[in-house]
## 1
Amino acid sequence: MSLRDSKGTPEPVRRLLDSLTRLPGIGKRSAERIAFYLIKDANVEALDLSQAISDVKQKVVCCTICNNIADTTPCLLCEDENRDATVVLVVEQPRDLIRLEATGMYKGAYHVLTGRIDPLAGVEPADLTVDALLQRVDTPQSNCRGVKIVEVILGLNPNLEGDSTSLYLASQLQSRGIKVTRLARGLPSGSQIEYANTQVLSDAIAGRKGMD
């Protein structure tokens, strides 16, 4: 019998365990350890965690230009006049943007798709922010600081769905006269950008290739 199912477990603790086990990567044992840590040893940490979660839900928004998570919109990256807004790096998720930005190698703008095309899972282009990307290309006023886009770098994960999405985007962008490149294949096939180290990502940015 798990702690959550025990009659000796108070209802607030059961609800905490239920909430923790619904989080990705946290099983019953991990949930119990976290719950007891918060109950016994971490008054300040528990309150800080509660406040941080509340702040995330209340204050974090999606940038109206690049769709990255932010606490203001347009976000600081889109508003930064030192970044080259003529070049846009397309990624699947905000966590990919964070990993690429950490390399310090890229000084252009971004666009977050919030996923990838996967017909088997029911994900079509309309379910992503593809239209918003094309709007930025077609209408410079929709891009960062009203700048015209001349190059789009496809920074999707190197797997079947990522490659399929890249091919779809390339066809849409090239028909509009946009230069389309993709990150170099220093990223192992089937891997995820969020797990790649900084050097691999730096090489992938520096060695980006044109889309055939």
## 2
Amino acid sequence: MALIDVVDWQNKEGEILYRFPEGDVVMGAQLIVREHQIAFFMKEGKLADALGPGRHTLESKNIPILEKLVNLPFGGKSPFPAEIFFLNNTIIPDLKWGTPQPIQIMDPEFNLAIPVRAFGSYSIKLKDPKEFLLMAIGSWQAKTTEDIAKTLRDQIIMTRLQDLISEFMIKQNVSALKLVAYLDEIGEAGKNKIQDEFHDFQLELVKFNVQSINIPEEDETVKRLKKILTDKAEMKIMGSDYDKRRTFDTMEKAAGNEGMAGGMMGAGMGFSMGNQMGAMMGNVMNPGMQQPGAQAAAPANDPMAKLQKLKQMLDGGLISQQEYDTKKNEILASM
């Protein structure tokens, strides 16, 4: 085991805890504690008082607690074994959290359980370094920053995340599909909800951010829900033309039925559908020719009305892309 005459920690940003490698520290060695750090000795489970920033000579006359801790004769120069811990006493930024598996959230708008993934970060600062260290190396058995971050993530954040998102959705009446627009608000609500539990761990929760919320596209419930929303959007855009589209869909299915009865019905419906499509195309190119009893939706020579109608027919599957492009160019050329 090596003899140690200089003890220090050149920590990187984001590191919280460091245990100096075990070895025999020589009485009279130099302990260097940087401005943002705090150091502790531990011997046989007993934690010494904190040593703040500066250069400390490890002598019992300068650090009286060492005399009891090490139990060496006054002025002795013998090496002694001890555990030395450093803590970062500044804000620890950008610790990560995330859902390893999607969590099921009940959507208040659709009354469906929807899988949600969420990811973010948080920043902390020590409240009571000594009490925190005792908890970290005792209850948590933590030896590294990663051990501490995992404990905080698993024991606080992930256990509260499902309730946090569910409560926000219910209070704001927001669907899971729209949560991405509320990341800042969810982050603020999350900080308010879990900061007391961080206090119990002798930590101040400085920031809590939700950086992304997403829904697995491959989930069958999500696929069905998005289909419903797509149909709803089409109904809103197309207005009364949505009924026409549904009529044409029904006609096409009937026309494709097998068998004599289906073939006869298909022929009749196909003929009727052809007449209706022809009439609708005629209305697009000649809006002045209205059906009996119909009211003009726009002036006869309004090219914007023609283009809008033409686009609705394309979206409704009533004309092909080639037909759409041809008619659109004719309308634009006439302007």
## 3
Amino acid sequence: MLNKLTITELSSKLRKKEISSTELVSACLNEIKKSDSKINAFLEVFEQDALKQAQEIDNKKDLKPLEGIPIAIKDLILVKDKKNTCGSKILENYIASYDATVIKNLKEAGMIILGKTNCDEFAMGSSTETSAFKKTVNPLDQTRVPGGSSGGSAAAVAANFVPVALGSDTGGSVRQPAAFCGIYGLKPTYGRVSRFGLGALASSFDTIGPMARSAEDCAWVFSVIAGSDTKDATCSTDAAPELIHHTFPQIKGLKIGLPKESLGKGINEEIKEKFDQALQKLEKLGAKIEEISLPHSKYALAVYYILMPAEASANLARYDGVRYGFSAHANSLIENYLETRSQGFGNEAKRRIILGTYTLSAGYYDAYYKKAQQVRTKVIEDYNKIFEKVDLLATPTTPTTAFKLGEKIDDPLAMYMGDILTVSANVAGVPAISIPCGFDKQKLPIGLQLTADHFEEMKLLQAAKAYEVLE
């Protein structure tokens, strides 16, 4: 089946004219029509647009490396003239008036935007159950969640609807669903990929990253979306990395640190077992494993759940029922604000707005927000010091495998604890990747997470590719 092939395989076949883009897009659309009524990965599919673009590409003689390849986009990233709901009722009928920078880059590369995928409301969630529109299920076990907040993108790739998708990662929202669905998910360095056109959750944490069925496929897309952008003041001025033509050398001699804080209480025993086996495979590839310490990483989750709601509270203030999106049309301006936000936001969004507003309020700002920023600096310093000694860090991606639908939705603390292994990379702004490393006894996927120093995505992709080949 064409829709099961990797980008590398598809690109070769397209450029040799062994297959057409129309055939590839049709294969993906047929699979979506066949199965997405059960999976609920997509909020909208752009069938006619995709087929039209594919036909135009098929009339060309010479194709760019990614031209004609379909991709799915998390519904938090603006695609011009298409709905962008951010999974929220408050933006249910909002039509994007411009392309996000990453979408502009993908279009210039000739990739075909196949549709928008479901996500937790404003990326607030770890299960894709807080979406205002539908609940996405895990294609490997439809009684379980696909992870979140980029659960629709992960499910779309895992179900073979598309070879690759974009997600966003604020505290683990690319890596955690990638682990739950048995695919690869790359969170780039903060500022490596422009956030212009991304619905903001927490602006000092948000990143956009690819989700795919291979490390090399992540590299293909990352090399297109990364790079400088004057429309994002936090974006690095470095040029996009030339990863597409890289041969992915072996990782012999690479030093991989094992944070002793990462395998404590709460990590599933089967995950620990598969993680140990993954470390043995990395050693077999020539990597050197050594135990290290990140003493302040144990505070990263607390830091994140103070700073992230504070930033979310400020970012979501723009949804007031006046400028765009849903409006309750009440009798007075203040009533309109209150009714619009009360009816438009879901429970998790309201919870985080309230938490963030409290954190930023007079009398609590110094005790919570300021202190969390100080501890964040300590976490960053830990990472800076440790990457002077090692090349990569290795941990499990998640403390558990995919949990049952409804299991944690009414227990926010239990849901938040699922981020304990992923948030540190966001707090520090460093890149990380989730790699499939086996299954538990229930045949649920397990993820291995590798983390690198700022702008060292190449090392991550080298290690991931080498591990993938060994598998």
## 4
Amino acid sequence: MTHTYNITGMTCSGCQAKVQTVLSKVKGVQNVKIDLSKGEASIDMEHHIPTSELQSALKDYPKYQLFENGHQNHDSVTTNAEETRSWFETYKPILLIFGYILATTILIEVVSGAFDWIRWMGHFMAGFFLVFSFFKLLNLRGFAESYSTYDIVAKIWPGWGYVYAFVELALGIAFLTGFNPLLTNAVTFVVMTVSIIGVLQSVLNKRKIKCACLGALFNLPMSTITIIEDALMILMSLTMLTTLLNA
């Protein structure tokens, strides 16, 4: 017998292959055919396999959700609800984080007695990388999987997603402690420039995928907000590099 199911969360051939491999290992499954464009899976089975059993097989990959045709699961309802949310409601987490970092770093400059733009940018970037790496490390595997759907390096080497979170952590510590500013800003410029390429490609191609900037904790859509976020880090690191080289 053959049953067809809807599967959400698949964005590339890598996702297709992973889902097909996982479902093929379920006892009683004879063959699995995935239609990536339709988000469907046709499964040949020796006997009826409960949908819950197939869903359980994908439990280690929460971004893939399987449900029967004509039945919408909770995640699908959530997705539709998200599409109707206001711009502020959608981006509230990242706006609050930026607001907290901005306010804290400005306060540091105020109490120091003199506002130093270079020092402020160093503190802002330290806060940015430390906070954003924290959210990525809460679910490192989830972040790496999401990141590999659009980052140009992670698409080739999925392990880069795991490394990237620790690169952000290291950069945050480096900016906070003032470690080798020239090297720190150079690495930041290169890493963020490479990162923004995949973001630009996804936004320009209007791909509806999840942004991994805050890890797998928040379901933020890829948009111009992500571009601004990366571009800001590139601009700050470039400004600090130029200042250091001209000093």
